[in-house]
Amino acid sequence: MASLPPLRSGEGSGWGQYPASPGERVRMDAAYYLIQILNGVQYGFLLFLVASGLTLIFGIMGIVNLAHGAFYMVGAYLAFWLDSVTGSFTLALLIGVPVSVGLGLAIERFGFTHLYRRDHLYQVLFTFGLILVIGELRSILWGNDVYGVDVPPLLAGSIPLTETQSYPIYRLFISLACLATAAGLTGLIRYTKLGMMIRAGASNREMVQVLGLDVNRLFMVVFGIGVGLAAFAGMIAAPVNSVHPGMGDEILIISFVVVVIGGVGSIKGAFFGAMLIGLADTFGAVFLPEAAGVVVYALMALVLVWRPRGLFAGG
Amino acid sequence: MSDTPFVANRRQFLATTAAGVAVAGLPRFAIGAPKRIKVGLMLPYSGTYTLLGNNITDGFKLRLAELGEKLGGVEVEFVRVDDESSPPKAKDNAAKLIVKDKVDVLIGTVHSGVAEAMVQVAREEGTLTIVPNAGSNRITRELCAPNIFRTSFSNWQANHPCGDVVLKDGHRNVALISWNYAAGKEMLDGFKESFVAGGGKIAKEFLPDFPKDEFQAYLTEIAALKPDAVYTFFSGGGALKFIKDYAAAGLQGKIPLYGPGFLTDGVLAAAGPAAEGIKTTLHYALTLDNPVNVKFRESFQKATGREADVFAVQGYDAASLLAQGLTAVKGDIGAKKALYAAMEKAEIDSPRGKFTLSKSHNPVQDIYLRQVKDGKEVVLGVAAKALNDPATGCKA
Amino acid sequence: MQHQKLALPLLFAALAVGIALFPLVGDTFYIRLVAKIVVLGILAMSLDLLVGYTGLISLGHAAFSGTAGYVAAALINKAGILDLPTLLAASLTASGLVALVIGWISVRTTGIYFIMITLALGQMVFFFFHDVSFWGGADGVNLADKPAVAVGETVLLDLSVRINFYYTALACLVLVYLLLTMVLHAPFGQVLRGIRINEARTKALGHDVQRYKLACFVISGLIAGLAGFLEVVRGGFISPAHVNWHESAMVLIVVILGGMGTLVGPVVGAFALVLLEDYVADLTDHWKLVIGLFVIGVVLFLPDGLIGPLAKGGKRRLCLFRRPKETPRESIGDA
Amino acid sequence: MRETILETRNLSRTFGGLRAVAGASLAFEKGVVHAVLGPNGAGKTTLINLLSGDLPPSEGMILFKGQDVTHMPVHKRVHLGIGRSYQKTNIFPELTCLDNCWLGAQARLPGWLNLMRPARGYPAVRDRAERALVLCGLDHRADAVAATLSHGEMRQLEIGMMLATEPDLLLLDEPLAGMGVEESWRVIDLLKRLGSDHTMILIEHDMDAVFSIAQRITVMVNGTVLETGSVEEIRSSPAVREAYLGEEHAA
Domain residues for B220? Predict the structure, then answer.
């Protein structure tokens, strides 16, 4: 043992990321900041799709759904598979979202319904089990290779801003798609009976019964919406993200942070949280590369110290 | 999953082969040289690197088949462990093969972190180990040992030659980007060493977290920095994502992209036109035009139905190396000194071209310069002839 | 309640004796495996104090064990310190501090919010060790050497000798068991039980529940730190994966599997899970599927865990069916 | 004139727009059983919650033994000697009656981080707990698991737990809520016994009960104090008759 060499990290401090002295940092033109902001916002939108479903499920069903990221991954793999089978990304979307929603509802019916009366603990562990199962089924169905999905020809190409700076059209499309979904979701919650139920449920589950509404149906719908959003996010993200096994876990945790910051059950919170994280992550990556991963969590910790229940916590 | 017929695991094997049970139970060497040796495969059979694990396995089996299912005259029994590319489990998995299954030879693995932990156990237990991929420099430097061999490459080897290549192409100011983990840093350092020595300048170095693959922010900054070229290492999913984002950000063709071969290997099909023009250096190229390689690609295709790749080659050569060693000692795995000596002197006629081993048991091999043209990896020439890893810190 | 009072301690005693005698008969590999199980058992016990006895469901437990492990590794590799007491003290201090900070932020909430916050803060610790290259990066680091207790030149206890480690770990297991039993029978433990069953009322009876929860969190964190320290010494290796939330979730599984709120349950759970993994991994490459289904099965059909029948006294059940009354809003808690 | 143990000054609590308690200024005297009457929604329970610290007031202040406790958390008030029982039975169903009271009795221990000595090793605590059980008339059920008690017994236990903290002031929120006739008589007797040597603030619907137990009565109507006085004064007060009894008889 004694002969074993010292720790690897002994070599190179790691904080020495910049051979060029800070002063030497090139002046970044307006286009640069514009694009960086676009990047942050686009990432934020994507997070919002996932986080909004997560926060609804938290707020209304009172369930910590660790498997939410798995649905995001399933969406992406479906997008890849259907796209290669049908040859049309649009078609892939149209088929893929319902399929994943169906999967989600089946799990809700046969799994969660037995757990609503149980301690949160069991729901959490159940969803953790789901992660393992869905992950392995994925590797049986699609293997563990990394896949790419081609950007639909219509949206291929990018908008040149300076001679090197340009912004991919498809990323704009993602932002718009998310914006549309967000608007739709808000409309649904503000102006429909279902939305009324959801708002009631988010603030107080008993109230839903008081209002004489069918809780089980509400739960089913909410879970369906959540899964749908996650899968949809996974699908439209597929062309810009490589489709790979670890993707579910990555998005899950960061979405947690978004929900924690925004406040359980609050769509508004999810939105602002997502934007905050999207931008923080983007600019963190640029300005303190070494600590990039920690930045968003530090941000979360700060918010929690200030507001233990998040920015827009219901009640 | 690997479709070549072989013992999937110990239990099944023992169930099917009475001999196996007998030998597994018997005290070894009671009857001179044993009729069979136990080879432990510690490779990723689940997770992101599954395909690599399978190709290495099948490469090894292909060579074994060519040699008539015998290595140096002895039959081979396989024991397989899925290391999941999970460093925390590495030592337990290695111990499982060495201590529980009492394998004679350990073959593994892909992930550098896992490989290092595995090698440490192998050093303690003194088990013959052949590393068929993991490029961590340390394995044949600080961690080198008489019983540790490598048939793949060192991260330094795969990158060092590219420094001169980039300079020759007339690029003086280069931005670097790779994941912030050991392999990534070793790769970039290998490049920097020769590039800076030759008068090159590093515009900036980006190290996103492993395995984060949202590169947009970095690409935007690279575009603003306008370096002469970008040198990068990513593999698998990250590589594919980076190549596509790089093109999507409109940098393809404007700022040339360089890197070690892993950047493009295995992702060409998925990347499509986005990969066009990328120049890489590696100890192998699928399109290498030598008889061994041509034959190898055919038979691998035939045996597995899959296209061969550099990983299959490394597994294939692991078998060759072991075979030469065992032949020299007439299959007596017990004669460790002679065995290791023979393996150290071995000259492997590999699909990558002939190579020998250094004192630190790392391949001394040619590094090729390749470029992606029309979705194919084209060999432009040899970037470094018979390149030997410095092996600094190897005391064995 | 009555026969539980006897059954569980007896079961633990039996386990401890069994573990102590095993090296006389077991083969090397399984001795290593048991050592691993013992360490996992300690970690699970520490989590049981939170989950089983206080009703605080933490999904960030690996942060404490991981921190201790990393601190020990850094001291050994970078400062060349091998003195066991010093290392242990340093590691525990570190894990205790992390527990104090994470606890301070999270005990102000309850229910799912508590779960989420512990998870998120745990991941923050994960990224800290993952990103800051001082700690060795994503691949983790190997121990240059293993700690020992020495007076002057004479080495009293060298943990690089496997069997020494084995019995040291066992001693720690027994010690932790006794310590927790003591704490739980003391007034402190009574209040924790009160908090689990009815937090608001416990407060109304004059107990500063926040303070109790925080103290409980720190004690748990310290013991987790001990487990983390032992783990890094056992494996001679530490990596971010040791700090990842998957690790925390698996420990939680171990607790449930054995039977929470029993102390001995988690140890039984550790045996069950590790042996199952060792067995299934040999059978199929898709063993994770089996583990996943197993987890789901346990959750659905074995809420009281393997030793549930022994531990009865109905306490868990009642607790289960009390909770649903709380609405998500309440469960977000009195901040 | 007895000394005042608890005093509120212009105490108010609003929920959204609704003023549950509006500018209540009350004085509660030592050794007196003081009942608070009022129709539903008069703000009685809110008042108790403000006094016990379960709710923070919107305005005004609370003085206990001359000390400002307006913003003091519940557990600290317990240590000062304020104990309360809840309208909705609020006990530890899994624990025995003794253990239920034990937790209350423990609150009086000096310090909080008692990790070493077994709880059973604190005779003082045991005495307090057992005394509380005797007082609330459950000593014969000491080892019964609370969940198995009858409703009436649970109400008694509710009170017993409060007594275990040895409060100088008892806040009782509808101790007779949802009880059968002879059950309630048992509790009424209990309250009378307690009344003889405890200061109590009692909220109750049951008029007869109130009149038989209380010495002073405050009548509240939609959050405001209508009148405070002796049982007789309240009985004969036209305003009260009008606002409360009237409706009560109509019901």
Answer: 156-282+368-387
Rounded Cα distance between D129 and C196, Å, is 21
**Can the peptide bond before residue B211 be classed as cis, meaning omega within 30 degrees of 0?**
yes
Minimal CA separation from C54 to chain B, in Å? 30
3-state SS, residue A267? helix
Alpha helices in chain B (DSSP H): 10-16, 18-25, 50-66, 87-95, 112-125, 155-168, 182-197, 216-225, 236-248, 268-271, 291-304, 310-328, 336-345
Question: Where is pLDDT greater, at B17 or A222?
Answer: A222
Is the pLDDT at C179 greater than 60? The verdict is yes
Q: Which residue has the tokens 């275990």?
A: D164
CA separation for the pair B153, B187 (Å, rounded): 11
CATH number of the structural domain spanning residue B178: 3.40.50.2300
The residue in chain C having the minimum alpha-carbon distance to the alpha carbon of residue A266 is C329
- Residue B171 pLDDT > 50, yes or no? yes
What's the average model confidence in pLDDT over D98-102? 94
- pLDDT band for position C153 (cuts 50, 70, 90): confident
Return the pLDDT at C82.
Answer: 92
Q: What is the pLDDT of residue B179?
A: 86
Instruction: Flag whether the ipTM exceeds 0.90.
Output: no
Residue D237 has pLDDT above 50, yes or no: yes
CB contact (8 A) between residue C138 and residue B45? no
The CATH homologous superfamily to which domain D1-81+167-251 belongs is P-loop containing nucleotide triphosphate hydrolases (3.40.50.300)
Residue C237 tokens, joined? 């290796």
Same domain, B22 and B96: yes
C-alpha B251/C-alpha B270 separation (Å) is 19
Instruction: Spell out the domain ranges in chain D.
Output: 1-81+167-251, 91-166
Q: Does residue A122 sit at the C interface (CB-CB below 8 Å)?
A: yes
- According to CATH, what is the number of the domain C2-332? 1.10.3470
- Based on the fold, state whether residues B140 and B272 are members of the same structural domain: no
Chain C nearest C-alpha distance from D232 (Å): 34
Same-domain pairing of B316 and B258: no
For tokens 């000062």, the residue is D80
Least confidently predicted of A18-27, B116-125, B182-191, C83-92? A18-27
Cβ-based contacts of C200 with chain D (< 8 Å) = 90
Are B172 and B266 contained in the same domain? yes
Q: What is the pTM of this model?
A: 0.86
Contact A164 B185 (CB under 8 A): no
A3 CB within 8 Å of a chain C CB = no
Residues 6+ apart with CB under 8 A from D180: D151, D152
What is the DSSP track for D96-161? Answer: BHHHHHHHHHHTTSSSS---SS-GGG-HHHHHHHHHHHHHTT-GGGTTSBGGGS-HHHHHHHHHHH
Range 150-209 of C in CB contact (< 8 A) with D: 182-183, 185-191, 193-194, 197-198, 200-209
